Amino acid sequence: MPLTSGLAFIERGHAMQAIPIAHPAEQPAAALGGYPTAVLCWLLSAGVYIAAKWVAPEMPPWGLCFWRLLLACAILLPIVHRHHGAMLALLKSRPLEIVAVGAIGLTLCQGMIYRGLNDTDATTAGIIMAMSPIMTMVLARLVLGEPLGLWKALGAVAALAGMLVIVAHGNIDALVRLRFNIGELWIVGSAFCWALYTVLLRRSKFGLELLPLVVLLLGAGALVALPFHLWEIVNDERSALNGNGMLALAYLAGPGGALMYYLYNKSVETLGASRASMLLYLQTLFVAILAYLLLGESLHDYDLIGAAFIVGGVVLATVIKPRTLPAKA
Hints:
Layout: H1 28-55, H2 61-76, H3 84-93, H4 95-116, H5 122-129, H6 132-144, H7 150-167, H8 172-176, H9 182-204, H10 210-235, H11 243-271, H12 273-278, H13 281-295, H14 301-318
C-alpha cells in the first residue's frame, strides 16, 4: 500500500474504485506515456519501506507517520489551490467521515507498517501488503454486498495461505500453536486497514477529485496521528529527530510522499485507474530489489513460497473470469 497511502485499488470486473478518479485519456500515445509515470510512482513508494526500515532503530513509528502525513499535506496543499473551496465544503459537511477514513487508511495503515518494520524485513512487509487487493475483495463482499464468485473465493484462500506461510516463517508448529512474528502481524493489520479504507471510500462516494481528496485525508490522518506521536515523545527514547531521521523524513514526505501521490494522479489520468492500480505489484518487486541492494536483505524460503501462493491467488481473483452463459431466447 503499498507503501501506497492514499492510492486506489481497482477490482477488475466490478471496477471497484477506492477514490473518485479523473477520466483516462483516450489517446493511445498519452496512455503509453503514462507507464513510466506509474513505474516511477511505485518505485518511489517502494523506497518508503526502505527508508522506514533504515531509520526504525532511531525514530518511532507514530512520529514518522505524523510528520510524513503533515509535510506531504503541506507540500500538496498549494498544488490543489483551485479545489480549496470544494475541499472546505466537503470538510464542513462530512468532517467525521473524512477523519475516520483518513485515520483508517493513512494513520493506522502507515503507523502499523512502521511499527512492523521494527521487527521484520522490508521485503517481507512488501510481500504481505500485496494481500491488500484480495482483502479488499472479501470486505467488499461483506460490507458492500458485491459478488465474490468461485475464482475470487479460491484466490482469497490461496493468498491467505501464502500470508500464513510468511507470518509463521514456514513453520507448521508455529502455525498450530499460533506463535507468530509480531512485526508481520502488524503488517497484516496494516493490509487489513488498507482494504477497509478502500471499501469505505467506495461506500462514501465523496465526489471530489483524486488529488484534493488525498490532501484532505492526509491532513485528517496527521491530526489523528498527533496524539500517538505525543505519547511517544513522553515514552519513547527514539523520539528526538537526528540526522538520519531528518533524511528519512525528507524522503518520506517529499519523493516518497507528495511526489508519489502526484505521479499516481497523473498515471490515473493517462492510463485509467484499473491499469494504473494493477501496476501496484511492481512495488513488491521494487521493495525486494532495493532491500537487497541498500539494506542487505535476502529472500527467505518462506517468503518465496508465500509469495507464490499470493501471486497465484491474485491471478485467480483478477485474471480468470467466470464463463457467462448465453441468454435464452
